[in-house]
Structures are given as structure tokens and as C-alpha cells.
Amino acid sequence: MPHIVIEYTPNLGALPFDAMLASTTQALSESPEVQDEADLKARVLRADHFRVGLADSGRGYLHVQLRILAGRTPEAKKDLSRRVADALRGHLDALPPGLQAYLSVEVVDMDRGSYTKVRLA
Amino acid sequence: MPHIVIEYTPNLGALPFDAMLASTTQALSESPEVQDEADLKARVLRADHFRVGLADSGRGYLHVQLRILAGRTPEAKKDLSRRVADALRGHLDALPPGLQAYLSVEVVDMDRGSYTKVRLA
Amino acid sequence: MPHIVIEYTPNLGALPFDAMLASTTQALSESPEVQDEADLKARVLRADHFRVGLADSGRGYLHVQLRILAGRTPEAKKDLSRRVADALRGHLDALPPGLQAYLSVEVVDMDRGSYTKVRLA
């Protein structure tokens, strides 16, 4: 069930998204909270337009939502969040010079009782 | 107020999104929880990059967020979730052969007190 | 930390997104709830496909998620929501004639304990 949604601003240069997603799902699959690696559904959404605060340029970011079924402990959620941040940071050391860039990770509880999952094919 | 957000991986072949959205809003409009059909705001977001678990290929998915104002019973939320899944499944029987594909539906409570809605034109 | 995510249907004509985002971050930066303007991370996501209720055409919308760290009062959340709506409305007075268009703003609490933020460069 964990969904990993990465949103990013397109001023970060060419990012190795395939490697970033592979590292992230690998790191999460090693968590005791994840039962089945095939539940790890990751995706990337590119921002059409963006802005950081009051600056017209020179800033960018990636933001990750990790959406998990509710019920984890605060410690488990913190650990999952850190796994995602650590997995991504390793791929983000060649950003355009002079850019003020941020990475943030947010853990979202999904309502368990109304979650529907279907195998299509 | 219900927002329907469908995110999908682009390896599922050509999907009939217009028909999928029409079926989904139709099914939801028939729920006693929906007062005004014009409140049903559906949209589709395409993932630029994606990954499912530890597999480099051969897997895909659609994930739906149904965002409703808080206050529904667990039963009502489960029913809404199932309406969405059933409406979409009817359009997903011709996926690329050999693909391991999933559909999931998540119901999200939106904070009622701070929700703003404006008619623009 | 506030994340501002604007999703929109592409039938609203050419929208001045840069000005819309500038007004929004300006209005939010003036709130006592926002400590550092550089925390205001705004982005725009375009819907590939969309539908409003049972109508095949003639309707469109923008929906904003304002994602803030949990702990604000209901009044503060309502004020933040209204700031976003007011900032955007000023730029939305030239929509295509005959279109039935909506703007909605939703405030989402983010889990504070598991939120990770890293300065990359």
C-alpha cells in the first residue's frame, strides 16, 4: 500500500528519476513495516509552474508524499520518512550551482477501512 | 465537494479516460452522500516516471484519491470507494498482456471548517 | 513548510500562473502563521483529463491544497484558506465566456513528527 509521490520543480537539472525511485523502493522494502515489495507504488509528478516564497528565481525543491495505511507508530513513520529522504539525497549531489534547493518528505495516513485494492491483470 | 484524482502509470496502454471519468461521476452522483452532481470534480494526472516495488518493469497501476468533506460514516466511505473502483474496472479489461496491474482507491477526509469554494464565472 | 498545490483544468484559457503564485506566496507570507517565506513552496499541476459532474463540457475549476504542519487553530486555517482564495481570484476575471468555473481551497494538516526537511544545496 505505500504510495510514494515525488513532486519536483523543473529547474533542478536532469535528475536520475529511475535510479531515485529504485533506491527509494529498495530502502522502503527493507523496512519491517512493508510486507510486500509489490505494494510500493512510486510515481513522479512534474510541476508545470512553481515558486518558492518571495523569490522570483533561484530556488527549487522536491517534495515527497509517503502515503501509508493508518496505524503505524510515530517512530515507524519517522523511520519511513528518513528512509525516503536518505535514498533520494544520494542522487541529488549535482544540482545546478547557485540554486537554493530543498527536499521534504511528508508521511500521510490513509484511511484503512475505505481503502480498496484490486488486481486488474 | 468530492474531488476525484486519478494518477496512473503510462504503461497501461491507451485508456478511455473520458469514459472512465463519466462512469465515475455517474456512479458517485447516485450516492445519497452527493447532493449536487456539479460538485464532482474529477481529474487525471499522468506520472512522468514510476516504479512498482523492486521490479524494473512489467508492473503498472492506477491510484485514485477521493477527497470528501469530513463527517461521513465508515460505511458511507467504503461505499464511495467501491463505487469508484467498480466504475473504473469496467473500462480496464484490455490492458497490455503480461502486465501486472493494480487499481487502488483511497478516501481522504477534507477539513470542513477551512474549505473555501467560490464560483468564478 | 506550507505547500501550495494548484491543480487546474486546461479549459480555463491562458492563466497568469507566475503572477498567481506570486500573489499567493505574498499573501501567505503576511500571515503570522508563516515564519519563513522561503518555506512557501508552490506548484501547479495540469490535469490531463478532467470532468465536472454529469456535464460533458462547459465546466472547469482550480483546486488548491494548502498543506501545513498540524497544530493550527481552526481560525488560522480558515484565514490561510481565504488568503489563498483571495490572492487567486484577482487573477481569474478573464475566463472564457459561458464557462461555469470554480475555485476551491482545502487546508491539509501534515504530520509534524515524521516531516523531514533537508537543504540540498
Automatic annotation (TrEMBL), chains A, B, C:
It comes from Pseudorhodoferax soli. The keyword Transcription does not apply. It comes from the Bacteria. InterPro entries: 5-COMe_2-OHmuconate_Isoase, Tautomerase/MIF_sf. This is 5-carboxymethyl-2-hydroxymuconate isomerase. It holds the Pfam family CHMI. Keywords: Isomerase. The lineage of its organism: Bacteria, Pseudomonadati, Pseudomonadota, Betaproteobacteria, Burkholderiales. The keyword Heme does not apply. GO terms for molecular function: 5-carboxymethyl-2-hydroxymuconate delta-isomerase activity. CDD domains: CHMI.
